[in-house]
Write a structure and sequence with these properties.
The complex is a heterodimer of chains A (143) and B (394). Chain A has 143 residues and is of the alpha/beta class. Chain A has 3 helices and 7 strands. Chain B has 15 helices and 10 strands. A 3-stranded antiparallel sheet of chain B has the order 1-2-3, with no helix packed on it. Chain B starts with a strand and ends with a helix. Classes of the chains: A alpha/beta (143), B alpha+beta (394). At the A-B interface, β3, β4 and α3 of A face β6, β7 and β8 of B.
């Protein structure tokens, strides 16, 4: 069975700073390596994408994907750090994982991140909003 | 080809929540489906950042009236995951007890609605009648029939009275007999099989692609069950089977839920027996949560509920992500609804047990002559069942 040690051996050179906890592996991935790492997690290891979390930090924005490896109960969480707050962009993984379609659209409208290569980059939650919300999860932290 | 567009939703007096489906049909066959969500976006994630961890648990309990144990459990797991906090054994059994009771009443609620949608109103009335004692057990345990307010970071907030356990076990025996009877009646019914087998099939590969969870995934042969994959609380201490079937149709989703309901009763029984002999505290004193991040999940009746919290050492999260199972199960309609007759749409939509399974009416805006015309999806579905029943009995 493919486990964490195998993942680190195969993908260790593609990932950056990591936090290794019981049952959880959070690690940074550069945009150019994201597809390769996600392909390995989804197709080779058979992980399932639970969801993704977008958030604004003091240094920029980040997108944290949560891949569950159900046979072992282990979570693999690739973190894409975006430093350009004015024009935040990341690479969409929806062409690889259909299950990422909605959550990337949601992160896009909630935080203003553009996901390059997304098959349907439309608003998901606020399309019909009477006030036309603009990046509501970024309003409370000055850029 | 003349295409007809059928909008379903977003607002209707019978809809418990607002959702919007656009069905494109060719004659009586669905050729495309589009979904529009966000009509009830309440901003829970943002609200949670202004709450303490304990308050957040109460907040997420209000996300769903049916999953009012699942969200608090996943939220508590996420906060506990930041510092790997353990909970007392007695609290673990109580958490599992109320989680499984919730699964029983949720599955029975779905069974009743599904029966109603296909014209089995007796099944509907039975299922909801036998759900009532489950809610009464909840009332005895938590004081509430819904929104139980039991969860805390580090355990639970209310103990189960040991003197009430034998009475609860008696109620449970009665529920077992009734549900077993319903399961056998449903399993032996040739009309039900003819009506639901092969309807709204979600192939296993589509379930993998869309990252489906819960009974929706397990009916398609995908063995995803958080209770077994990452056993928390008392799930590693009780015996139960993971129910996995392979056809992915509505019938298999029905069978998965019926069998899971019986498994849940087994778990509840074991928890109650253990609570007789497991003394001790029900809450660990958690003084502070350090800066970090944590993932919590729980197998809700509809599938995996996922919570993620980022903390900064204060008493509240700086980011709280919530993902309910319907969020990943609803997109599977794109795979399961295409190519099926309009009469099967209602039960296929309802088969993933979305939180808005009352989508029983629709307005067809134009017919083939371009004229407005009303249709009733529920009526179509029930008429098809009646037709199959006549054919089988003749």
């Amino acid at each position: 069975m493919l486990d964490k040690a195998t993942f680190l051996k195969e993908m260790g050179a593609r990932i950056g700073r990591r936090i290794d906890k019981k049952g959880r592996l959070y690690f940074e991935v550069a945009g150019e390596n994201l597809h390769e790492v996600v392909n390995y997690l989804f197709h080779t290891m058979g992980c399932r994408l639970s969801t993704a979390t977008g958030m604004e930090t003091f240094h920029g924005l980040e997108v944290l994907y949560h891949f569950s490896h159900d046979p072992t109960g282990q979570y693999y969480c690739p973190r894409v750090v975006i430093t350009d707050k004015k024009n935040p962009r990341s690479i969409s993984i929806a062409p690889i994982v259909k299950g990422a379609d909605w959550i990337e659209r949601e992160m896009s409208e909630m935080l203003g991140i553009t996901f390059d290569g997304h098959p349907r980059p439309e608003r998901l939650l606020t399309r019909e909003h009477p006030k036309g919300l603009d990046r509501p999860l970024r309003l409370r932290r000055p850029s | 080809m003349i295409k007809t567009v059928i909008p379903v939703g977003p607002f209707h007096p019978l809809l418990e929540e607002a959702e919007y489906f656009t069905l494109t049909v060719d004659g009586e066959t669905v050729v495309d489906i589009d979904l529009d969500i966000g009509w009830m976006h309440r901003g829970h994630e943002y609200l949670s950042e202004g709450k303490t961890f304990t308050q957040s648990i109460y907040l997420v309990e209000r996300i769903c009236g049916i999953c009012s144990t699942s969200h608090p459990l996943a939220c508590a797991h996420a906060v506990e995951d930041v510092d790997n906090i353990e909970i007392p054994p007695r609290a673990a059994y109580i958490r599992t007890l109320i989680g499984e009771l919730e699964r029983i009443h949720s599955h029975l609620l779905w069974l009743g609605l599904a029966g109603h949608f296909i014209g089995y109103d007796t099944l509907w009335m039975w299922a909801w009648k036998y759900r009532e004692p489950v809610l009464q057990i909840f009332e005895k345990i938590s004081g509430n029939r819904n929104h139980y307010g039991m969860l805390r970071v580090g355990g639970v907030g209310r103990d189960v009275d040991p003197d009430s356990i034998s009475g609860l076990l008696k109620i449970l025996d009665e529920i077992w007999r009734k549900i077993d009877m319903v399961a056998k009646a449903a399993g032996d019914d040739p009309v039900l099989k003819a009506r639901l087998k092969g309807v709204g099939v979600l192939p296993k590969q589509a379930a993998v692609d869309y990252c489906a969870v819960g009974p929706t995934a397990r009916a398609s042969g995908l063995p995803v069950d958080v209770r077994k994959d990452e056993p928390t609380d008392a799930y590693g201490l009780v015996e139960f089977e993971k129910i996995v079937l392979r056809n992915g149709d509505v019938y298999d989703k029905l069978v998965v839920r019926l069998l899971e309901t019986l498994e849940s009763i087994k778990i509840v029984r074991q928890c109650l027996e253990k609570l007789k002999t497991t003394p001790g505290p029900i809450l660990n004193d958690v003084q502070e949560i350090s800066a970090g991040e944590g993932i919590g999940r729980y197998e809700a009746p509809r599938g995996e509920v996922f919570h993620y919290v980022r903390t900064d050492g204060s008493n509240r999260p700086i980011r709280h992500k919530v993902r309910a199972p319907s969020y990943v199960n609803i997109p599977t309609f794109a795979a399961s609804c295409k190519g099926i007759p309009v009469a099967d749409v209602l039960i296929t939509l309802a088969s993933v047990d979305p939180c808005y399974c009352c989508t029983e009416r629709a307005v067809r805006m134009v017919d083939s002559h371009g004229l407005p015309r009303r249709i009733d999806l529920s009526k179509l579905s029930r008429e098809k069942t009646a037709r199959i029943r006549r054919e089988i009995h003749e």
